[in-house]
TrEMBL record:
Native organism taxonomy: Eukaryota, Metazoa, Ecdysozoa, Arthropoda, Crustacea
GO molecular function: ATP binding; polynucleotide 5'-hydroxyl-kinase activity
Xref: Pfam families: Clp1 (PF06807), CLP1_N (PF16573), CLP1_P (PF16575)
Classification via PANTHER family: CLEAVAGE/POLYADENYLATION FACTOR IA SUBUNIT CLP1P (PTHR12755), POLYRIBONUCLEOTIDE 5'-HYDROXYL-KINASE CLP1 (PTHR12755:SF6)
Name of the protein in its database record: Protein CLP1 homolog
Domain (Clp1 C-terminal) ranges: 315-375
Length: 382
């Protein structure tokens, strides 16, 4: 089944892809259009991942051909894209100011005296479009010749690796419509859980480690430094989740926080961290609320794509290794009550304690991270 759609300016075509993504294709017949900030090439056929939620936006009007069976297909005339573009304009103005200040300071390449571009953080509850807004802002920055750093702290999604990880990557070209951003040479830290609350102490340690790495990268190269960074966060915004957001803002020395669709969170941040600019933005009407089952399916798909590939097919295989040369650790141990401790002795934080794990059946259906650490003491931050 094929359908032609004519979009007027400032409108978008929204649709969902089912379980057979190869049967769905999209072509731009006339005009200009983009998908989450990535420009579409004329007369090129685009395919999508299974269960993808797609929004094709046009600033000036276009004509599209959509082939295959899709769900929830409609044209929306009310979108927040003008506000998102204005947000990009504000970030670009800060980048130009940093460029101008850097030239006036005449700091040498690699100097910590670089004028730094904006570090922006996107926050909000689950299913409000944080990842989409992050992708749009990164794509717009690249289209303006910038090289921003993308930081993904959403361990439930793990867009740079697999769920349960945090990471950062230098973005040098716009995201692919199908595969997203190129994942060459990312910096990845394993957290090991799909929710930060499972071990918030470890999560905050890894956040601080990534922030240190990002600041070092921005200081090492002028173009990267003035381009800044954009941070995607988890949807946990209450209690310890809120404290984690303020910790992220402080660790990364954030200049701008974008709050999607929750006024209470916006007001709390304005009150608690007045030295950081906080902006409220509405979510897109095309955002789909996911059930816990849908989230689990998405995580499974990401893990499968990580091992078997998307555009380039991988061929994972098994090999044998002796238990005697394999050392496995988990981070975090049960909390001991004070009554079990000798007098005048305090136990180390059980949430960051290394516990040796014996290989066995209990590791079945678990993912293990291969560490670059040469000593157990370095496992937390390697």
């Amino acid at each position: 089944m094929e359908q032609d759609f004519v979009l007027q300016q400032d409108s978008e075509l929204r649709f969902e892809v089912g379980d057979k993504p190869d049967d769905v294709s999209l072509r731009l017949l006339d005009g200009k259009a983009e998908i989450f900030g990535t420009e579409l090439a004329p007369n090129k056929s685009y395919t999508f991942l299974s269960r993808a939620k797609v929004a094709v936006f046009t600033w000036h009007g276009c004509r599209l051909k959509l082939a295959g069976k899709t769900e929830g297909t409609y044209i929306a005339k009310e979108t927040p894209m003008v506000m998102y573009l204005n947000t990009h304009g504000c970030l670009e103005r800060l980048r130009r100011n940093a460029e101008r200040d850097g030239r006036s300071n005449d700091a040498p390449e690699g100097s910590s005296r670089h004028a730094r571009g904006p570090i922006c953080m996107v926050v909000g509850p689950t299913d409000v479009g944080k990842s989409t807004l992050t992708r749009i802002l990164l794509n717009y920055a690249v289209r303006f010749g910038r090289r921003p750093i993308y930081v993904d702290l959403d361990v439930g999604q793990g867009s740079l690796s697999i769920p349960g990880t945090l990471g950062a990557i230098l973005v040098e070209r716009a995201a692919s419509v199908r595969e997203g951003f190129s994942q060459e040479a990312p910096i990845i830290y394993n957290f090991g859980h799909k929710e930060p609350g499972f071990n918030i102490t470890l999560y905050n340690i890894l956040v601080h480690q990534i922030a240190t790495t990002v600041h070092a990268k921005m200081a090492s190269t002028r173009k990267v430094g003035v381009s800044g960074a954009i941070i995607n966060t988890c949807g946990w915004v209450m209690d310890d989740g809120y404290k984690s957001l303020t910790h992220i803002a402080q660790s990364f020395e954030v200049d701008l926080i974008l709050v999607l669709d929750q006024e209470r969170l916006y007001n709390d941040l304005v009150q608690d961290i007045p030295f950081i600019k906080v902006v409220y933005l509405p979510k897109s009407g095309g955002v789909v609320t996911r059930t816990s089952h849908m989230r689990a399916v998405c995580r499974d798909v990401r893990i499968r794509n990580y091992f078997y590939g998307l555009k380039t097919k991988f061929h994972p295989h098994s090999f044998n290794i002796k238990y005697s040369v394999l050392k496995i650790y988990k981070i975090g141990a049960p909390d001991l009550p004070d009554s079990c401790m000798p007098c005048d002795m305090k136990i180390d934080d059980h949430r960051t304690k290394l516990v040796a794990v014996e290989p066995g059946v209990k590791l079945k259906h678990h993912l293990l991270a291969l560490s670059a650490a040469t000593e157990p003491a370095n496992l937390l931050t390697s």
